[in-house]
């Protein structure tokens, strides 16, 4: 069986039926799977999804405190910039282009660590990166962990229901997971530890990293603007943590065919380019599906790509030593041929 067919933990309702067609579970089935996988009393191998959502709940408490105690035009602006742009762009820089696709390389582990911790720690790298490889291998097909064709809830709760790695991998398959994650700097469990915890990361190291990250950033924000700023930005991170779970549903057109000629050039799935995710996070999603390993996905002049600007700046400073940039290939293989075809058609009709 191909590695990407079984590297993720299969939900109780399965990926596909006997005919190979996508199984679309009911809302009740999705919620049942969600709470079953969060139950650390049932199995300590559920620790990572539980840990991930515990952070979301804690950040949501900050968001409520922001709304009730620290709401002002200044904190609203700060929260908007941090939650929409800083958190979103960092997610693209770190989790998407580096952890998953290795689109660029750091000079050393120090700068990798700095980039990893540029924002408040929210999403576990393991949950994001491994499942995102599967997403690209099976985009909009059964087995895609956030297949938009199965509905909003299927995507929104995917980090618990569909994205964790399987708990019964062989030693060989587990080391393939380690190979996928090794460049991230997250220390891997031994195979024996994996069999105990069901994860690539060890809970003790994950918790320590989280505590130090949150303590550092709360302290920095407090020095800059007291509890008002710190609570507001932590609340903004909570808003982003919930909102980012809606992205792949929207980024794959809610499971429908909404691609536009001259805007979306990848026709192998339902991914689309959207202005808002593109401007605030560099997520030109259809472009990304054309060239997944490119450190830039904003290829056209209007496609602002803040994540790329950071990577390019780090390259100019010598922090990033290598990156992939497929802008030239995009113009040669897609944009210019399409433009020439339109010119030929218009000329013919004249």
UniProtKB/TrEMBL annotation:
One of its GO terms (molecular function) is oxidoreductase activity, acting on paired donors, with oxidation of a pair of donors resulting in the reduction of molecular oxygen to two molecules of water. Belongs to the fatty acid desaturase type 2 family. PANTHER family: ACYL-COA DESATURASE, DESATURASE 1, ISOFORM A-RELATED. Residues 72-293 form the Fatty acid desaturase domain. It is found in: Membrane. GO terms for cellular component: membrane. This is Fatty acid desaturase. Keywords: Fatty acid biosynthesis, Fatty acid metabolism, Iron, Lipid biosynthesis, Lipid metabolism, Membrane, Oxidoreductase, Transmembrane, Transmembrane helix. It comes from Mucilaginibacter ginkgonis. GO terms for biological process: fatty acid biosynthetic process. It is a multi-pass membrane protein.
């Amino acid at each position: 069986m191909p590695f990407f067919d079984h590297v993720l933990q299969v939900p109780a309702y399965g990926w596909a039926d006997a005919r190979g067609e996508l199984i679309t579970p009911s809302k009740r089935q999705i919620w049942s799977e969600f709470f079953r996988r969060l139950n650390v009393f049932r199995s300590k191998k559920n620790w990572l999804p539980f840990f991930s959502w515990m952070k979301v709940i804690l950040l949501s408490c900050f968001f409520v405190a922001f709304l009730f105690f620290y709401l002002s035009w200044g904190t609203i602006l700060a929260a908007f910039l941090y939650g929409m742009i800083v958190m979103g762009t960092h997610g693209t820089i770190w989790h998407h282009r580096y952890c998953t696709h290795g689109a660029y390389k750091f000079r050393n582990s120090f700068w990798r660590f700095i980039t990893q911790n540029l924002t408040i720690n929210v999403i576990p790298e393991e949950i994001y990166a491994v499942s995102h490889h599967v997403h690209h291998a099976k985009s909009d097909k059964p087995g895609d962990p956030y297949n938009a064709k199965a509905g909003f809830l299927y995507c929104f709760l995917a980090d618990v229901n569909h994205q964790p790695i399987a708990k019964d991998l062989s030693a060989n398959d587990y080391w393939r997971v380690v190979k996928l994650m090794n460049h991230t700097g997250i220390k891997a469990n031994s195979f024996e530890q994996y069999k105990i915890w069901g994860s690539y990361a060890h809970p003790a190291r994950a918790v320590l990293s989280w505590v130090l990250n949150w303590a550092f950033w709360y302290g920095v924000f407090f020095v800059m603007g007291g509890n008002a700023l710190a609570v507001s930005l932590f609340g903004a991170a909570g808003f982003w943590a919930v909102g980012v779970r809606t992205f792949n549903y929207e980024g794959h057109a809610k499971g429908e065919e909404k691609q536009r000629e001259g805007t979306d050039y990848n026709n192998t799935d339902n991914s689309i380019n959207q202005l808002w995710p593109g401007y605030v996070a560099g997520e030109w999603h259809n472009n990304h599906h054309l060239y997944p390993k490119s450190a830039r996905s904003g290829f056209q002049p209007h496609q602002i790509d803040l994540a790329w600007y950071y990577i390019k700046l780090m390259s100019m400073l010598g922090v990033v030593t290598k990156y992939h940039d497929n802008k030239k290939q995009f113009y040669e293989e897609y944009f210019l041929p399409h433009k020439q075809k339109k010119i030929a058609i218009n000329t013919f009709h004249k």
